[in-house]
Fold each of these.
Amino acid sequence: MEGSLQAKIMKRGKRSQASLEYLLVVALTFAIIVPTTYLFYSYSRESSQEITDAQVTRLGKSIVDTAETVFYSGEGSKTTLDISIPDKIGSVAIIDGREIVFNVTTNFGISEIVFFSPVNMSAAGSSCNANICSIPELASSGLKKLKIEVISKDTVKLEII
Amino acid sequence: MKKSQASLEFLSTYVWAFFVISLTIGALYYFGIFDFAKYLPQKCVFPSQFKCIDFSLSPTDVRVKLANNLGEDVTVTGLQIVNDAVPPISCAPASTPFEWSHSTDKEIAFSSCTGGAYIAGERVELKISMSYFAVNTPSKPVHLVSGKVNGRVTSS
């Protein structure tokens, strides 16, 4: 009788030890996974911001450089750029023919990334209002073809085709 | 009757366990154990056209050193600093407007900072925005650039 009681206590003790060990392992796993996930998420969020900035910078520079190259090739010259537009671009506009402005949304506010062109730039006629020409097609992400054409002796036109 | 008593005892035991665990987690949270952001590196992020070179967070001042990589001379017309605290941080920005030549660095200071949980020894995340225009553009359109400073406020 006493022996069976002792066996029961032993059995219960072993089960509770197993449960406790299980709980400890789960708790330790959570203690490692939760902070690690948070840290990696924070790193990746900041990295994605830097990647968007780098992509927009490369895009803007290539448009301005190509516009200059085409301009000095003479009137009627044109070329097509294959461009990859990143997410988070709200709008794109050409101001005064010399500034191409990318409106980029970041997790700490809106930033305008501006590129200055040495040659006069313009967009398709209907999208121009006073000294501002908007290019809404450049604000949607994805792969696009941008035609850069010298339309007069002093103007280069940008158009998504 | 015995079964219901057993169930009640089981439940009351676990309610107490749940209560104790909640209290423990609450206390750990209160003392900032779960504030994992403090383990992230201190950082100053601005678009590459105004690259952040350095920053300092003293108990009353916020200073950021930026480089003008636009390739154009600009005039800075406004500076603003905020954070997500309620009420947000309040600082006196550097006086504007001021000229900024291309390919040069500028230290931008915000002084007399108060509020916004801006306390010595604490980790803070500040959002800085700056408006400017290029002097050579005829209509002088004003542009906005935003950046972020994430760091610990020094003790002195």
Amino acid sequence: MFARFNGLPSSLLDDFWRLQQEVDQLLGDGLSSPGGIRSLPRGSYPAINVVQTPDNVQVYLFAPGIDPKKLDVSIQQGLLTIAGERSIPTDEHANYYRQERFSGAFRRAISLGEDIDAERVEARYRDGIVQITLQRRASAKPRQIEIH
Amino acid sequence: MTTNSSQVRISSGGVSSGEASGQESRNAGASQRERATEAALRAPVDIFETSESLVLTADMPGVSKERLEVRVDGDTLLLEGKVHFQLPEKAEAVYADVRASAYRSSFVLSRELDTEKIQANLKDGVLTVRIPKHAALRPRKIEVR
């Protein structure tokens, strides 16, 4: 029954799944794991990526078509909350075939840990991505201990 | 390269460009293989139709005009975009909803659509493609007397 799928290059799919698993392993036990109490199912708007360096944490919010001035970004005790709204007007005289794009109010929260300096947070909006840069407090950075 | 493939110019209030099309056809074999191995995201879209045109809107955050390609190949509309954002050096991934760096979608167009007059506009990661219908093939309301 599935014989016609046998022609598919299986190594290609294997590669894909292996990559997916590796990414899951890499990200699974992060600061804000996919199973976190405030997390949203995948595919929610806006999508979020988080990366970190010893000095800062970068949060990328994939939020196309918003007015960044109306975005409410706040941080309290290491919990970053981003709230906003994207309203897509609908044309009454048009026939819609697909409406997959999110419209409405959204809120996302990410736990970033206690070492974030709430006074030094910057955000910029470009090509539909909000990039939030949060500095870590100096005391929380890993220190090199000298051995005498 | 197919003769009926055409590059759609994308406007965004800035300059327009079509430099990607030559590269596309020159290296078609290799780029197709690359595409097959790289997982692509499917952008969420809205599609609606009015009496004059068909309008497609796609969310493609992180795609700039230079990294976006809107193409008509025969009766197929292709949307391809590469995601780009600034990453600090030595960054370590902590969490990721978005796990691919490209968008790819295709749509089969119908005969009444005038692919010569497609307009594409990209703003803040939202692509709007407007395809007008051939004037002669627009639906006519027939009045019943």
